[in-house]
Amino acid sequence: MAPLVRVRLPSTLATRAGVDRLCEVRATSVAAGLEAVTTRHPQLEPLIWLGPRELNPNVMVFHNEALVRDDTLDLALRDGDMLDVVPAVESG
């Protein structure tokens, strides 16, 4: 059975999509975890994904506090891992 992981959204994204801030999914990789969340809540898909296996640049994803990039979406997950999806902050 795939590991049980938690996916946490900031209140701004959760409210915008009409979903809970925290959900649990079973997934073997970061990509699979995010795909499980967007399958359960399709309204989150455009907020998280720009295209197939391409994260939306308007959000940052963290796996247990480590920043995830498109080339690290295959990182393996373990029971109890946390995926955080947060809005990207621009400076300038």
What does this structure look like?
The protein has 92 residues and is of the alpha+beta class. The chain has one domain: Beta-grasp domain (Ubiquitin-like (UB roll)). Helix content is 24%, strand content 32%. The chain has a five-stranded mixed β-sheet, with helices on one face. A hairpin with a 2-residue loop joins strand 5 and strand 6. The longest helix has 11 residues. The protein is globular and about 30 Å long. The chain starts with a strand and ends in a 5-residue tail after the last strand. The mean pLDDT is 93.
Sequence-ordered SSE layout with sheet pairings:
Elements: E1 4-8, H1 11-17, E2 22-26, H2 30-40, H3 45-48, E3 49-51, E4 54-55, E5 59-63, E6 66-68, E7 82-87
Parallel strand pairs: 1-7
Antiparallel strand pairs: 1-2, 3-4, 5-6, 5-7
